[in-house]
Write a structure and sequence with these properties.
By secondary structure, the chain is α/β, with parallel strands linked by helices. Helices cover 39% and strands 14% of the residues. A seven-stranded mixed beta sheet has the order 1-9-8-5-4-2-3, sandwiched between helices. Strand 4, helix 6 and strand 5 form a beta-alpha-beta unit.
């Protein structure tokens, strides 16, 4: 029986060890722990990679969402439209600034439906937060058109989509703010929590730089109330090293996804098609299939690691009860939740691994 892990962070470290350890040792020898040149260099390199004016490094992608909302003036009494099938951080960030999350249902590809967004806009709507789920970007042309017509701001939850493109434009460069995660499971991953915010607006970037460091403009002057969300120097050094390899990571994941699509083309599974305007980076490779739980168990028995992103929609979570949504509120999202299964797609898989996984999916009989 073949072993195909869902992720392989140990192999990543083994491949990078000889280059990474001297960088880490040098930072430790400098006693360089917080902020400094490494963080500034990372911000500059990320800005160049993403084609944006400003990048602000932070301790997490969740903080990037919260600070982005706050810098855009979103707060109590405001509504923010977002999908219900994301990781909880997107909705939690809206709640954290005192605003109200308003959900819009999704399309067959799991990304937010622009028509559902249009139907959800009210006089209290102040922002739209699309989530580029799985590394596939939402339909940003339609979303930005809606935002412009209604005078709204757009926060891209780009946690899963670094390097993805929609109609030639990079994730995090289209909305007023982009929020990225560099959690260990992301395509660009730190050795712990990390994230960053992107924007073309220098005023927004300036505000977020204050928020991340107690609102301090110097050691003794507090311009606004902030918190601590500084990116550690060690994480910055690791991310700089890994950013240089990110094009290879994306290439490998896209190749693995393309092979899955070919080998599972006539299998009884749904794989969202890739449109001409899309360049998907496949943070995850999600299929939709009947008898999902049975298939997951079947694959596990055969040494194949899988995951589910995400089994319970946000609007049906206990924390969301006060929002007043019950089963049936968002039928497309809810119909997908028991059918979605994430197959391994990481960059260290070999074609034989993909072939084995596809063979076992095809062999499954409910």
């Amino acid at each position: 029986m073949r072993n195909v892990p869902y992720v392989d962070l140990q192999r990543q470290f083994a491949a990078e060890r000889d280059e990474m350890m001297p960088v880490i040792e040098a930072a430790l020898a400098r006693a360089d722990y917080v902020g400094g040149a490494a963080v500034e260099k990372l911000e500059s390199e990320l800005a160049a990679f993403l084609g944006v004016e400003h990048v602000v490094a932070l301790a997490s992608g969740t903080d990037a969402l919260i600070f982005g909302l706050r810098a855009l003036g979103i707060g109590p009494g405001d509504e923010v439209i977002t999908p219900p099938n994301s990781f909880v951080a997107s909705t939690a960030a809206i709640v954290a600034v005192g605003a109200t999350p308003v959900f819009a249902d999704v399309l067959p590809d799991q990304n937010m439906s622009p028509k559902a967004v249009a139907a959800a806009i009210t006089a209290r709507t102040k922002a739209i937060m699309p989530v580029h789920l799985t590394g596939r970007m939402a339909r940003m042309d339609e979303i930005m058109d809606l935002a412009e017509r209604h005078g709204l701001v757009v926060i891209e939850d780009a946690a899963q989509s670094i390097g993805s493109r929609y109609d030639g434009r990079l994730s995090g460069s289209i909305g007023h703010v982009g929020a990225f995660s560099a959690h260990p499971l992301k395509n660009l991953n730190a050795a712990g929590d990390a994230g960053f915010l992107t924007t073309a607006d220098g005023d927004i970037a300036g505000k977020v730089r204050l928020y991340r460091n107690h609102g301090l403009v110097d050691r003794n002057t507090v311009e606004c109330w902030g918190t601590v969300s500084r990116l550690d120097t060690l994480q910055a050094e690791i991310l700089r090293l890994r950013l240089a390899r990110l094009p290879w990571v994306i290439e490998r994941r896209r190749a693995n996804a393309a092979l899955y699509r070919r080998l599972l083309a006539d299998a009884p599974v749904f794989m969202p098609p890739c449109g001409d305007t899309e360049f998907n980076t496949f943070h995850t490779f999600v299929i939709q299939v009947d008898q999902r739980d049975a298939l997951q168990a079947f694959l596990g028995e055969r040494g194949i690691g899988t995951a589910i992103h995400y089994p319970v929609p946000i609007h049906l979570q206990p924390a969301a009860l006060t929002l007043g949504h019950g089963p049936g509120a968002f039928p497309v999202c809810e119909s997908q939740a028991p059918r979605i299964l994430t197959l391994p797609v990481h960059q260290y898989l070999e074609p034989d691994d993909i072939a084995y996984v596809a063979e076992q999916v095809r062999a499954f009989r409910p």
